[in-house]
Specification:
The complex is a heterodimer of chains A (201) and B (347).
Chain A lengths: L1 E7 L5 H11 L4 E7 L5 E7 H8 L10 E9 L4 E7 L11 H16 L2 E7 L10 H13 L3 E6 L6 H11 L6 E2 L8 H14 L1
Parallel strand pairs in A: 1-5, 1-6, 6-7, 7-8
Antiparallel strand pairs in A: 2-3, 2-4, 4-5
Helix pairs in contact in A: 1-2, 1-6
Chain B lengths: L4 H8 L5 H15 L35 H9 L5 H22 L11 E5 L5 H14 L8 E4 L1 H4 L6 H12 L4 E4 L13 H15 L5 E6 L1 H10 L3 H4 L2 E5 L4 H14 L3 E2 L1 H16 L5 H22 L5 H5 E2 L10 H10 L3
Parallel strand pairs in B: 1-4, 1-5, 2-3, 3-4, 6-7
Helix pairs in contact in B: 1-2, 3-5, 7-8, 11-13, 12-13
Classes of the chains: A alpha/beta (201), B alpha/beta (347).
Amino acid sequence: MRQCLVIGSPNVGKTLLCLRLAQACGLKWAFIMHELPDGAVQERVLTIRDAMVTLVSPRRYTTVGIQTVGVGMSAAIGRRLVLHDSTGLSEESHDDALIRRGMARTLTLMVQTEQIVHVVDAAALDKGVLSPIDTLILEVSRERNVPYTLVFNKMDAPGAARQTELYRKRDRRTRPLMMSALRGQGVDDMQRVLSRTNVVN
Amino acid sequence: MQRTDPIIDQLARGQLSVQSSLEQLRHIYRRDAPRSRSGVMRFGAPQQDENALPARPLDAGVDPVAAKETLLRPLRSLIGLGEVKKTIDELYAHLAVQTLRRHMGLKADGTVLHMIFAGRPGTGKTTVARMLGPVFAALGVLTQGHVVEVERADLVGEYVGHTAQKTRALLDRAMGGVLFVDEAYALARGGDKDFGREAIDTLVKGMEDRSGSLIVILAGYEQEMSYFLSVNPGLSSRFPVHISFPDFTERELLLIASRLLEERQYRLSSDALSALRQRLRHERSRHDFGNGRTVRNVIERAMRRQALRVIRCAQPTRQDVMTLFAADFWEGDDHASMSGDWQSQRW
């Protein structure tokens, strides 16, 4: 089982992205292990549709703790991918002990997992520059030398295309993968990238 | 135990911001990077190197809260100066919290720390200034923490244009440290035509330009300093920290005297203590009383008198060389009676 961490700021669409991936892999049912920040583990089996309704919301911190979604990546290779959907990293909720522990768990996974998918809200970029926390996530992942994918989510939102363009002008080295988890666009690309890194490593 | 654990643990406990935890993680990997030759880095292998990452963020050398006692120990060991110590405690707490705030990713304001030390001579102004330099350096306010002590003659030049040049050179020398201007009121003494005024202006200008990397302390007598500040509007607002050094009480003077004697490995005979007390009380009533400095002078004078006495003695013992008698503290006695006194008290 390949461990993959989905990381990013709160409310950038990490959970929905995970579920979309599961859907794209042809799963009807998602086996979701919800690890709460206090260490308790909750296991749920939901249909993807139900999961999207219950686990996703426009609020920040819908996901507290780590949700693990098992995704069958490509049957031909026979290797499976486990997506760790994590608590969003942000400075503002620093005084909430529960969320803080969730964020600490996210960092633990960040130094352990074999692959990192970094989700950024493309519309929230400022002049095409990543936020300081996002920049650091990118740098730490690079230093760790694990397969890393930068995903620009919410490409459907106004201004996202322009920001992406600006970002590309600034940083030619990183090629962000553009998608809209809400509309289900770009999920195929994502799937391809993940399965490719699967083969390479 | 992985080296990343303390960082993540601190984040969970809310002592580290997300950003600085990520920065520290990056730092760990940066350092590991050249070591691993190829492929995916092996992480979490037990590595016990002595320069393991400190639990605190890296930019500050010390943990300001934990190091407080060590840093302030020299200051605490000073006798008296209760008010001064209290003010410096406040300053320290403020600066320490600012450092903590920075570590937690919050805004930390750059406090202006230029100070005025007002007090009579010998009340410890220079001593305290010398101790503050290293403390500020440890807190990261100053880069060097050295103390440059100057007075009017060092700042004021002999011809037009010389003053600014001299003052600027001194400011440059004090960069990253403390510039301590003793008897600062003397700069305003000579009237409008005096070069002292130019020195003040250059000083103020230099402080503004170099703000944040230099602390200027003006020291002098209480009354003269308040006059000095009143005739130079704008000065007192640029020196927000005002610390006044009160005169020492009689008890504190005696404590200072006994510490000086202890340092010099002398001791007092039983009657010498009351003689010293009387002498200090007498000195204290004089208008030119120099507080700590007077105590030192009294002690040193007594030591010279004792030396004179001992050298006349045929075979001085260890005890003789160490002990000060009451007679050593009496002023104006002629040597004959002193010697007689000593002989009568010989034991």
